[in-house]
Amino acid sequence: MKRKSIFASITLILLITVGAVLYRLPAVQDVLLKRASSIVFTSAPKPFDGMKVVVCGSASPLGNTMDRAQACIAVVTPEHFFLIDVGARSPVRMGQAQLPMNRITGVLLTHYHSDHIAALPDVNLQSWVAGRKATLQVFGPKGVQRIVDGFNEAYALDRGYRTAHHGSDLLPPTAGPMTPITVESGILWQDSDLTVTSFIVEHDPVSPAMGYRLDYKGRSVVISGDSNATDDLFAAAQGADILFHDALARHSLDIMTAAATEAGRDNLAKIFMDVTDYHADTRTLEAASTDAGIAQLVLYHLVPTPVNGLTEAMFRRGLKDETLLAHDLQTFELPPNSGAISIR
Ligand SMILES: [Zn+2]
Ligand SMILES: [Zn+2]
Question: Minimum-distance ligand to the CA of 301?
Fold first, then answer.
């Protein structure tokens, strides 16, 4: 028995040693890179004949972690692809989720805090490189013209370099600059299968700020953007299959505020206190969601953003098991004209 175990250990060490040597050989490295590239370039998400929703960013500015990008929700159907907000690092999630950047329909911005717009130039470039041939439409409340004009100007040289280098067939200059579309509350986009509706939310002093509802073949998803829990929001979300609502765990933030004050970090403590009046407290959301007939409540844009098991458990304090805390790359599939929601 002892002899067998010594033999197994020697064999294992030999295999590890041979593997480590092979790993450093250029010929072996070339084969491995080719194989890995081939897998990445030929893989594709399985087609889904309904509305698919992917969390491409679940964090808020209060909690900067590599596990969570900033606010971003993707809604994909066989014919449409909208991004609702594009916070920092969300393009990484878009790549990991293999979202169809080449056929993006548009970006819906809820408001212009940096954690909702920071990745707009990356989304524009990635979708252009992926094959988008028309300008990227960027919808948002009043102010979107200024946001898009500013990004277009800041990235004008970059677009010029890229078209000069790769050619106008690959990167047509007309598709380079984004096009802003200012929206009021009401229907902003519609075809025979999909209706996108915007509604005003409460995020003072940010005004106007908006949420969006997307209805597709009898299924619906609502994204609050940043907002307190308001009657108007829940009226707009009435009967939705999924409501993604921003959420603030006051009990966690109070402890962090006290710790910041004790540490003499007065600026931080003030910011912690200030944000409590313009995000929805976790404890206000479940009853309103039930009353509005919403099938699945998902909390995202989490303030403070959980960074480990302890802070996530604290964030969940007082919540029902059915209420979900979004995590990056969480995916919801809603088959047409059904009540089913598949979550993974
Ligand atoms: Zn905000
Ligand atoms: Zn925000």
Answer: 2
